Backbone:
């Protein structure tokens, strides 16, 4: 099984009460770390990353209200792309949740709440639903977000994009979009290839400012060597005195990282 198939299998076993359910992250080293976009709902705080049975260092967490992606080049898409390119994310998961208040708040109520907070309606965009990306179906919202991410020119075909739902009471995860299957479909020769021309010319990247990314000018190692002879132009003085051979140290046997335990921290309904 691939990483997210194993995650969901372990999650379902844990929710069913299997105390031994979990993953060995070393078995999935090629698929880690994962990048997950979830909602801001505080009920999710206790679920991640343990509902995925991943150690914290293998989990890059992005959050916004409603785990919404509004466009193939949106700011959330930029963060997802940089999470992969800069932080090494190998797979993306967009994880919606049950009982999402973004889905349950009608636009009239949202407006009332904004006005109560001192926001002037006249200063808001005309089409608020489009602006905030609000939705009525959590599953449809995840499908839409996966569609934007999968077709974004910022995400290459080496990165699977999955869609999941998590139950805010039990921590149970369920598939919405299997990103491995989507990739297989895209790889079929009979299927039309991605139309990158339709995604827009380079002009579409005008607001993607690579200048915001800071990269160190100095090569690794230079900073750690004061008076680096290669940098200063001074040849190093060779020490010709005999150097005793280093003592032979037997390397310790490789330790297998511990299995990351799962179940989720909140007990399933009806589980005492
Ligand atoms: Zn939510």
Residues:
């Amino acid at each position: 099984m691939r990483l997210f198939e194993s995650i969901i299998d372990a999650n379902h076993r844990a929710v069913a009460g299997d105390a031994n359910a979990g993953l060995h992250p070393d078995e999935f080293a090629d698929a880690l770390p994962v990048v997950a976009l979830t909602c801001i709902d505080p009920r999710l705080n206790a679920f991640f990353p343990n509902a995925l049975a991943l150690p914290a260092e293998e989990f890059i967490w992005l959050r916004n209200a409603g785990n919404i992606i509004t466009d193939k080049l949106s700011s959330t898409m930029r963060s997802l792309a940089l999470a992969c390119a800069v932080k090494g994310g190998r797979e993306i998961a967009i994880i919606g949740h049950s009982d999402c208040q973004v889905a349950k708040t009608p636009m009239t109520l949202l407006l009332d709440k904004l006005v109560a907070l001192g926001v002037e309606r006249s200063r808001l965009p005309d089409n608020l639903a489009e602006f905030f990306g609000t939705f009525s179906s959590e599953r449809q919202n995840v499908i839409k977000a996966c569609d934007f991410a999968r077709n974004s020119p910022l995400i290459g075909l080496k990165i699977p994009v999955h869609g999941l739902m998590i139950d805010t009471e039990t921590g149970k995860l369920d598939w919405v979009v299997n990103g491995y299957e989507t990739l297989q479909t895209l790889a079929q020769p009979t299927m039309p290839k991605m139309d990158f021309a339709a995604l827009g010319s380079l002009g579409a990247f005008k607001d993607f400012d690579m200048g915001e990314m800071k990269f160190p000018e100095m090569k690794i190692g230079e900073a750690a060597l004061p008076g680096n002879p290669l940098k200063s132009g001074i040849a190093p003085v060779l020490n010709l005195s005999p150097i005793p051979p280093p003592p032979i140290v037997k390397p310790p046997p490789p330790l297998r990282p511990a299995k990351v335990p799962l179940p989720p921290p909140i007990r399933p309904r009806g589980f005492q």
